[in-house]
Design a protein that fits this description.
- The complex is a heterodimer of chains A (about 260) and B (about 325).
- Chain A has about 260 residues and is an alpha/beta fold.
- Chain A has 7 helices and 13 strands.
- In chain A, about 30% of the residues lie in helices and about 30% in strands.
- The longest helix of chain A has 16 residues.
- The radius of gyration of chain A is 22 Å and the shape is globular.
- Chain B has a 7-stranded parallel beta sheet with strand order 7-11-6-1-4-5-12, with helices on both faces.
- In chain B, α3 packs across α4 and α5 packs parallel to α8.
- Classes of the chains: A alpha/beta (about 260), B alpha/beta (about 325).
C-alpha cells in the first residue's frame, strides 16, 4: 500500500522578502529554503498511518527546480518517509500546472491508498493544489483537516471551516487530504534518520516528460512590496489619559469607530 | 460585454457581505451579472440579489446542497458555468470558496486566482492583485486568453455601492442530477468562541505572550464586546495552547484585513506582521518601547496592558454607548 505525501520547498517564514531587479519575482539569492510548514503535518500523518498499517510505503514527492528542491525530500526521508520522488520543473508554476504534474507522477508511480498535502504553500498561498490534484485523479478530497482516523478503507476527518467551526467528513479511500496546523505534532528528524536520508537515492522525473503540453493558465507579474508605513504615533501620559486620547484619535482622526 | 457569474454565499442573516461586494463590483464594472445560489433557502435570496445588481439568478435548491458537499457543489458550479458560459467566475476566498473553486477549475482545465485584494476588468479580462507570503509582497495575476477566469476575492476589499444598480432578475432553477458522494459530511461542530472568522472581521483584538496567562484572554474578550470585534492571537500563544489555531494571525495562520487591529502584548514577529499587514489602522499596546510592533502600528501605547485594557474597555463602552 502506498501513501504519497506532496511537499514543497518554500522560503523560511523568517525571510524578509525582496524583489528581483525587474520586479518580475522575488530575489531568491540568500534565501533559506525549508519544507512548507503545513506539509510537515502531512508527512507526520503519513508516518502515523504507517504505524497502524504495517507494510505501507510512504513516498514523498516534490515538484521544483532540481538544483534545490531535492533537499526538502531529504527532510521528509529523515522524518521517516521511505522514498523520495523529485520532479524537476521550472520555478513559479501555476497551481493547476503543479497539480497536473503531481497527478501524472502519482499515476505513474502506482496505486495510492492515501495522498496527503499541506493545506497551502506559504509562498504563493494558492490553497489549490490538493483539490486540483484530487480532481485530476478523480478522487474525493477534504481540505484543511485537523483530525484524521481510518477504519476499513473509510477515513473520518475533521475539516476546519470558519471561526473555529468544523465539519466531520467520512471519506472513502483512496482520497486526497490537505493538512492544517493542529492535525498532529510533526516530529523532528533524528540524527540517525538524517544520516540514513543522506544515503538514499532520490527518484528523478521531469515535468517536461510527464506533461509535455503544459502551459500556465495564470501568470504573475509586476511584483510589489507593501507601502511603508510611518512609525506609530506614541500616545503619551498616564493610562487614563492615554486611553482617552487613543479613543478620540480612533474616532476623529482615523475614523474607524 | 463581459459575462460574470458570481457564486454567492449566505448565512442565516442573509447574503454575506463578501458576496455583496462581488455583486457590486461586477455590476459597477458594467458586466452582465449572473449569480448562483445553493440550498433550499436559495430562492429566498433572489429578490435581494436583484436589488444588488443580479440580472440572472440560478437557484440550485436541492436539499443535498444544504451542507457543503464538495462533489455535489462542484457538479452544481460546473452546471452553472455550462449554462451561463461566463468569462469570469467570482467567489469569496472563504472556507467554502477556497475548497470548491480549485476542484472545478481542474475539471474545466483552468486555474484559480485566490486571495485577490484588488480586481480590474478590462474588456473580458481581469487583472487581480494578490498577496504572496501573507502580504510580504504582492503580484498582479492574469489568465491566459481563452481560459475561464476563476477568481476568489478576500472579504472587505471591495467597496459596497451606496445605491446598488437594482434589477428585476430572471430567476431559473438549476437542476443537477444527484452526485454519488465519496466524501460526505456527517455532522457539524459549532464554534464556541468567535462568531465571525478573522478573515472577515472588521475589528480584531489580538493578544500575545504579554497576556502572561491564558485566563487573561478574558480581558481581550471584554474589549471585543463593545467593539463587536473578533479575538485573534499570536503564534506564540497558539503554540502554547492558550488559544485555538483558528485564532492565529500570521504566516502560518490567518492573513487579515480589518479596518482596526489591536495588537496587545504582541512583540511583532515578522510572520505576525505579515499576517496583519492588510489592516488599515493598527493599535499596539506593549510595555517594551522597542518592540517591532511599534514600527508597523498607527498608534502606540507603551504601558502595562493590565492597566490599559480595563480602562480602554470602559472608554469604548461609554463612547460607543454600549453597556
Amino acid at each position: 500500500m502506498s501513501v504519497f505525501v506532496c511537499i514543497k520547498q518554500v522560503p523560511d517564514t523568517e525571510t524578509k522578502i525582496k524583489l528581483n531587479a525587474g520586479s518580475s519575482g522575488i530575489e531568491t539569492n540568500g534565501i533559506k529554503w525549508v519544507m512548507n510548514p503545513y506539509d510537515e503535518f502531512a508527512v507526520e500523518e503519513a508516518i502515523k498511518f504507517r504505524d497502524t498499517h504495517p507494510g505501507t510505503q510512504i513516498i514523498a514527492i516534490t515538484v521544483g527546480p532540481k538544483a534545490r528542491a531535492g533537499e526538502v525530500l531529504r527532510t521528509a526521508l529523515a522524518m521517516g518517509a521511505d522514498e523520495g520522488v523529485l520532479v524537476d520543473a521550472p520555478e513559479n508554476l501555476d497551481p493547476a500546472q503543479t497539480a497536473k504534474i503531481l497527478a501524472a507522477a502519482i499515476a505513474q508511480e502506482g496505486a495510492a491508498e492515501l495522498i496527503l498535502c499541506g493545506k497551502m504553500a506559504i509562498d504563493d498561498q494558492a490553497n489549490s493544489v490538493p483539490q486540483m490534484l484530487a480532481e485530476n485523479l478523480k478522487l474525493p478530497h477534504t481540505s484543511v483537516i485537523s483530525k484524521f482516523s481510518e477504519s476499513g478503507g473509510v477515513a473520518e476527518v475533521e475539516r476546519d471551516t470558519e471561526a473555529g467551526a468544523k465539519e466531520v467528513v467520512a471519506v472513502t479511500l483512496p482520497a486526497v487530504f490537505a493538512a492544517n496546523k493542529g492535525l498532529n505534532t510533526p516530529r523532528y528528524a533524528s540524527l540517525p534518520g538524517i544520516m540514513k536520508a543522506k544515503k538514499k537515492v532520490l527518484k528523478e522525473l521531469s515535468a517536461a516528460t510527464l506533461c509535455p503540453d503544459l502551459t500556465a493558465a495564470v501568470t504573475l507579474s509586476k511584483y510589489s512590496l507593501p507601502a511603508e508605513k510611518p512609525a506609530a504615533q506614541i500616545i503619551p501620559g498616564d493610562p487614563a489619559a492615554q486611553v482617552k486620547a487613543l479613543v478620540q484619535k480612533l474616532r476623529d482622526e482615523a475614523k474607524v469607530l | 460585454m463581459s459575462k460574470i457569474l458570481i457564486f454567492a454565499e449566505a448565512n442565516p442573516q442573509g447574503l454575506r457581505r463578501s458576496s455583496l461586494e462581488l455583486l457590486h463590483f461586477a455590476s459597477a464594472a458594467g458586466a452582465e451579472v449572473s449569480v448562483l445560489v445553493t440550498g433550499s433557502h436559495g430562492k429566498d435570496l433572489a429578490a435581494d440579489l436583484g436589488k444588488n445588481g443580479a440580472q440572472k439568478v440560478l437557484v440550485a435548491g436541492d436539499a443535498q446542497l444544504d451542507m457543503y458537499q464538495p462533489e455535489a457543489y462542484a457538479a452544481t458550479l460546473e452546471a452553472a458555468i455550462q449554462q451561463i458560459k461566463p468569462d469570469v467566475v467570482l467567489g469569496s476566498a472563504s472556507a467554502l470558496g477556497k475548497d470548491l473553486f480549485p476542484r472545478v477549475a481542474a475539471r474545466l482545465d483552468t486555474s484559480v486566482i485566490s486571495d485577490g485584494v484588488e480586481i480590474k476588468l478590462a474588456g473580458t479580462q481581469v487583472e487581480v492583485k494578490k498577496p504572496l507570503f501573507s502580504g510580504k509582497c504582492f503580484a498582479q495575476a492574469q489568465f491566459a486568453s481563452g481560459k475561464l477566469q476563476m477568481v476568489l476575492m478576500r472579504a472587505n476589499q471591495l467597496p459596497l455601492l451606496a445605491t446598488p444598480n437594482s434589477k428585476t432578475p430572471e430567476v431559473t432553477e438549476l437542476k443537477v442530477p444527484p452526485v454519488d458522494l465519496k466524501a460526505k459530511i456527517k455532522s457539524l461542530i459549532q464554534a464556541t468562541g468567535n462568531k465571525m472568522d478573522l478573515t472577515e472581521a472588521n475589528i480584531i483584538v489580538s493578544g500575545g505572550r504579554g497576556l502572561k496567562d491564558p485566563k487573561n484572554f478574558s480581558l481581550l474578550e471584554d474589549l471585543a464586546k463593545p467593539l463587536n470585534a473578533t479575538v485573534g492571537a499570536s503564534r506564540a500563544v497558539v503554540d502554547a495552547g492558550w488559544a485555538s489555531h483558528s485564532m492565529q494571525v500570521g504566516q502560518t495562520g490567518k492573513t487579515v484585513a480589518p479596518s482596526l487591529y489591536f495588537a496587545v502584548g504582541i512583540s511583532g514577529a515578522i510572520q505576525h506582521l505579515a499576517g496583519m499587514s492588510g489592516s488599515k489602522v493598527v493599535v499596539a499596546i506593549n510595555n517594551d518601547p522597542n518592540a517591532p510592533i511599534f514600527q508597523k502600528a498607527t498608534y502606540g501605547i507603551v504601558g502595562d496592558l493590565f492597566q490599559i485594557l480595563p480602562l480602554l474597555t470602559e472608554e469604548f463602552k461609554t463612547v460607543l454607548n454600549k453597556g
